[in-house]
Structure formats: structure tokens, C-alpha cells
Design brief:
The protein is of the alpha/beta class. The chain contains 13 helices and 6 strands. α2 packs parallel to α3 and α9 packs across α10.
Length: 247
């Protein structure tokens, strides 16, 4: 029997290690790769061509929703199952709109994880019980359009730029990460701000957090705070101060 190939995507190594140990106990599953951020997930999905991707939502460089959208668009045969700590309607809806075939909480039982992978491989869907019940209720009540409508106005590349701006990357750094010219990054930045009617980085960062493009954990803290709490070179990324973010 051909094994179901799985790519694990999570920015925490301990989570990836734990998932790998669980999945390796199942005879019909083979873990073929790992990724620690959204950009790496795209590269690995193209390289190893997995049947199923286990996708975290909150990641640096490219969030799990946008990574899911790009993977399912580029490889329709690859199914994405979100594995997250977030259970609210907003995150679930964003993941489903991006093409996810399932949504599980990280505390889910290993047997449910196995069933989700098997169902996704067959073209089905699988959700944690609490999420499945809410989805059913929303379907019956015709859940209204959410605030994600504004996010859908942005192209995939524009969402990537918004996330990287919110994470504190300079235009030159973004150009290197996205393999485009700095002028191209600047054009995307201008187009985003015009489309959203946002004209400063602090407001754009708040928008990125509130709309789910980037998790608040990845919004840079003040340089002075970072210098005290981390040995990382503070010149790696420019940071916004709490005063600027509150502006």
C-alpha cells in the first residue's frame, strides 16, 4: 500500500518533532519534510510534493492562511489541514477560504489526526468536533460576510508584503526574501496603502494584526526592550515602538 506523504509546517521545532513522532507510529503515513515558516513551506511543498500538509497558522515571513492559499493553488492534489491553537470563527473561516481541507486543534487526539489525514487524502474534509458543530450551525443560519472581505481585495503578493512590513523588514530585506527588485516591493507597498487607504506603517501593522495577516507575536518590539531581552542583533529588522503602534 502506498503511504500518505505528509509535510509538517510549524515555527516551533518541538511541535514539529512531536508531530513527527506521532505520525511515524502510523504504518500508512510517511513524513517527507518539515518547514519552519510560510516561505519555506511553499518551497518544500514544491520540492517534496506531499499528499497532505499539516499547517500552523501563526508563522513568520508568510502566515499559514496565505501559505495554504498558494500551496493549494499551485498544487491542487496537495491537501492542507490546519493544526492550530486558534479555534475562533475568524481563523477557521480564513483557513477554509484559503482552501484548507480540515481544521484541527493542536490538543486533538492522535486518532483524529490520523482520520483527518486519511480523509483529506481521499478528497474529504475533517474538523475538530467543536469546530464542526459551529460550522454546521453557521451554515444553517447563513453566517454573514465577515471582515475578511477587505483582506480578499489584496493579491497574494500584496499580503506577503503586508506581513513582512508588519514584521519589521525593510524594503531591501523584503526584496531579497521575495526574490524581486526593491522597486517592485515599493510599488506593492504603495498599491496596498492606496487600496486600504492606510498611509503609515503603524496603521498598516495594526491592520495586519486585526485582519489575521500576521500574528501579534511577530510584531517587533522596541529596540531597547529587544536589546535587554534577546542576544539577537537588533539591526536585523527595524522595530516600531509601542508609541508608534498606538498612534
Amino acid at each position: 500500500m502506498k503511504k500518505i506523504t505528509v509535510l509538517i509546517v510549524d515555527d516551533h521545532a518541538i511541535v514539529r518533532d512531536g508531530l513527527r513522532l506521532i505520525l511515524e507510529t502510523f504504518e500508512d503515513i510517511a513524513v517527507v519534510g518539515e518547514a519552519a515558516d510560510g516561505q519555506q513551506a511553499l518551497r518544500e511543498a514544491q520540492r517534496v510534493r506531499p499528499d497532505v500538509v499539516l499547517m500552523d497558522l501563526s508563522m513568520p515571513l508568510l502566515n499559514g492562511v496565505e501559505a495554504t492559499r498558494q500551496i493549494t493553488r499551485a498544487r491542487p492534489g496537495t491537501k492542507v489541514i490546519v493544526l492550530s491553537t486558534y479555534s475562533d470563527d475568524e481563523h477557521v473561516q480564513q483557513a477554509l477560504e484559503a482552501g484548507a481541507a480540515g481544521y484541527l486543534m493542536k490538543e486533538t487526539a492522535s486518532k483524529d489526526l490520523l482520520r483527518a489525514i486519511q480523509e483529506a487524502r481521499k478528497g474529504g474534509a475533517f474538523f475538530s468536533p467543536s469546530i464542526a458543530m459551529r460550522l454546521l450551525k453557521q451554515c444553517r443560519n447563513r453566517h454573514p460576510e465577515s471582515k475578511t472581505a477587505a483582506v480578499r481585495e489584496l493579491s497574494s503578493r500584496q499580503k506577503e508584503v503586508v506581513q513582512l512590513i508588519a514584521e519589521g523588514y525593510s524594503s531591501n530585506a523584503m526584496a531579497g526574501l521575495l526574490c524581486v527588485a526593491t522597486k517592485t516591493v515599493e510599488k506593492h507597498r504603495q498599491a496596498v496603502m492606496k487600496k486600504l487607504d492606510i498611509h503609515n506603517i503603524a496603521a498598516l501593522t495594526r491592520y495586519a494584526v486585526s485582519s489575521g495577516i500576521v500574528d501579534s507575536n511577530y510584531v517587533p518590539i522596541a529596540r531597547s526592550q529587544r536589546a535587554r531581552s534577546s542576544p539577537i542583533n537588533v539591526q536585523q529588522k527595524p522595530a516600531l515602538s509601542p508609541t508608534e503602534l498606538a498612534a
